[in-house]
Amino acid sequence: MLGRAVAEQAVADGHDVTCVARGVAGEVPDGVAWVRADRDAPDGLAPVTDATTRWNAVVDVSRQPGQVRRAVAALEPVAEHYVFVSTGNVYAVHSGLTTDESVPLLPPLEGDVMEDMSTYGEAKVACEAAVLDGFGADRSLVARAGLIGGPGDASGRSGWWPWRFAHPVGDGGAVLAPDDPTLPMAVIDVRDLSAWLVRCADSRTSGTYDAVGDPDTLGGLLSAARDVAGHTGPLVTASATWLAEHGVQEWMGEDSLPLWISDSEWRGFGAHTGAAAVAAGLTRRPVTETLRDAAAYEETREATDPRRCGLSDGTERRLLGLLGH
């Protein structure tokens, strides 16, 4: 989602854009040149790193340390600036309720390959280190993205709530939600993030930033989602203990309630302010616009692209029934 949005934004801003990819995740946007390459190959970037080629900027979204290390080594002689999209998962502590880029990091992954998502944060730490070591702090930008949402959000996390409020399955339009309205949570619109990344690449902005949405709460996001959907039915809430006892997952996945985190050690994941990024030019649209467009995307999803989070209709009806709704 983000890589495509960056390419589209860069073209819209008048830049000449080249995407380097294997070509297995769909077509590149109109107006973009495509170079087929496998970044896992030792010389995978050879087509874009010959001695006569110069790049004004590189935007990299990889999560594999080996890919980033090879890219940095190959591109440093021919590229002026490197923008790396990292993640808030790099932080070792997620319990603070108002935080910034000063939070300690996880140890970097030692190998070149992240085998599974259990070491996602460590892998991104290693990627960040490779970029900073190779390009230096003055020629690089690290954007630690928060939860990215909006149109094209295949994870469903930003679209599920407004979609569910538009299609309630409980009596009288009842919808089940966690009883946790003050949980810090924010969503950064993919279009806002991509526009900022392109501007930073163009202006050679350097530094490390939390690229996150406007600070909000789960309650605030659910209220915005209800407004987007025009939902007037009951909002039926249940405690974290009750939901866990009945098999409801947090955050995402099968039979989950998206955007919700009950684990106290992760309660501050959505609490980074993003103040430094805002000072560096990040602009953030109203979350209602993000949720509205994410919901519209949910409405167009094909039957072959099942949602990756949220409660099934049957599960939600059963749980609401247990709660008397």
From TrEMBL:
InterPro entries assigned: NAD(P)-bd_dom_sf (IPR036291)
Name the UniProt record assigns to this protein: Reductase
Stored Gene3D superfamilies: NAD(P)-binding Rossmann-like Domain (3.40.50.720)
